[in-house]
Write a structure and sequence with these properties.
Thioredoxin-like; globular; Thioredoxin-like_sf; two-stranded antiparallel ribbon; three-stranded mixed beta sheet; protein-disulfide reductase activity
């Protein structure tokens, strides 16, 4: 016979295995989502199938020509979204389409970012808002692969450090403009790059995050 501690441990392990089984078919595992790879790396996303890709959004065929798109998109962005990965390029698109800009400061090693993507951004309501109401730009602050041309290297006025990679430039931009170095950080900007509402961080309540987005939309329309 098994002792009581062993029995309890066996029940716990079995329960955890049963919990993870639906994940084989793309069901969200929200309790451990923060520790899983980015949702964009999953070949099958049940949320995306159920929502039809999020608000009827379809990927822009020209998106592949955007800066850093090929490098970041397939390995990071949740399916159903089609963001930019360069701030200046995204701001120009926001001006052209007359939409507010959502800047997402994120990172490969950001546990809270993965949790936000899996629990909040993947919801049909929020995903539809991101697709239809904003120009989205994701700025990674911890990537070590993409380097800047030597002509674009500079020394940060904030930290005194040499900026020679795309992510170091993104991090320096976050610190200098928003006085923050934590991720995720969400900044809702107008077409001149000015804040519409105070920046926000991780909010795991879908309705509260949707209200944050709506406050930016309302402020943009009021201008």
């Amino acid at each position: 016979f098994l002792s009581i501690p062993r029995t309890m441990f066996a029940i716990l392990v079995f329960s955890f295995v049963v919990y993870m089984v639906p994940g084989l078919w793309g069901a969200p595992l929200k309790a451990i989502s923060a520790f899983l790879p980015p949702i964009g790396t999953q070949d099958f996303d049940l949320n995306n199938m159920a929502s039809g890709g999020g608000g009827g959004h379809t990927a822009d065929p020209a998106a592949a020509s955007r800066k850093h798109y090929t490098y970041f998109h397939s390995k990071s962005t949740i399916k159903g979204l089609d963001p930019y990965y360069d701030y200046d390029e995204a701001l120009a698109a926001a001006k052209e389409q007359k939409k507010p800009l959502l800047v997402d400061f994120t990172g490969w090693n950001c546990v809270n970012c993965r949790k936000m993507e899996a629990e909040v951004w993947s919801s049909p309501k929020v995903r539809a808002m991101l697709n239809n109401e904003f120009i989205l730009v994701e700025l990674y602050v911890d990537d070590k692969v993409l380097t800047l041309p030597e002509s674009e290297h500079y020394v940060s006025k904030q930290t005194g450090k040499k900026i020679n990679t795309v992510s170091k430039r993104n991090a320096d931009f976050q610190i200098s403009k928003f006085q923050s170095n934590s991720q995720p950080l969400y900044a809702l900007l107008d077409n001149e790059g000015e804040l519409l509402v105070p920046t926000g961080g991780a909010v795991y309540d879908i309705e509260k995050y949707a209200a944050f987005l709506q406050s930016g939309i309302d402020a943009f329309k009021a201008k």
